[in-house]
Amino acid sequence: MSLVDQQPVAHMMDEDEVLITADQLPAPIATTTEASDKPDFGPLSAKELQDKRNEFRRVRVPPHRLSPLKRDWLKIYSPIVEHLLLQVRMNPKTRMIEIRTCDETLDAGAVQKAADFVRAYCLGFSPEDSLALLRMDDLFLDTFEVKDVKTLNGDHLSRAIGRLAGKDGKTKYTIENATKTRIVLADSKIHILGTYQNIKIAKNAISSLIMGSPPGKIYANLRTIASRMKGRF
What we know:
There is one protein chain. By secondary structure, this protein is an alpha+beta fold. It is 48% helix and 14% strand. It has helices at 9-12, 32-37, 46-49, 66-71, 73-83, 110-123, 127-135, 146-149, 155-165, 170-179, 196-211, 215-232, and strands at residues 56-60, 87-91, 96-100, 140-145, 182-186, 189-194. The chain has a 3-stranded antiparallel β-sheet, with helices on one face. Strands 4-6-5 form a 3-stranded antiparallel β-sheet, sandwiched between helices. α6 (110-123) runs antiparallel to α7, α10 packs parallel to α12 (215-232) and α11 packs antiparallel against α12 (215-232).
């Protein structure tokens, strides 16, 4: 082996090459201009979040609900104007209830809540039951027909609707109390008001009745479900 090969590698480097480690790098200079250039915005209020344009909703009133609407107009008008701070009027020419926001409206979603409240009343729910849509955020409306479950015509359809109502409305009240929902039977249409889970339970019970299950079996299943719900809460 030659003497050149025995020399360490460090001695074989060129004179212009310099090794610099990470510890020898200069520290970055902190600039205060970057922090000062960032804008500082305060939180917006609910009124500032609201769009400058007025939100508008129309709800059509069916003919069979015009007379009850005249009787219960104060119960419909008061919560919309006093609590939601909206403007509402009944247009007799178009038979529609018109709702819109104004400068005093604080909640951006108030107009949709009011529209759902009026729509529930027009479907046949009482003003007290419909008012729950304004007070609670987890309530929904579900509508379906008897023919969506089973195709029935003539007397078969009438008997199915009769099984849903029961004698003096007993079956309907039992389903409502067990599932904590409200049900409206409007000819072959069925409207259910409640939470998502409770609507599902009531819909299953109604579907079983339409398919021909005896009411006694439905009552037993509802008692089991009601006891399970009490234990859960």
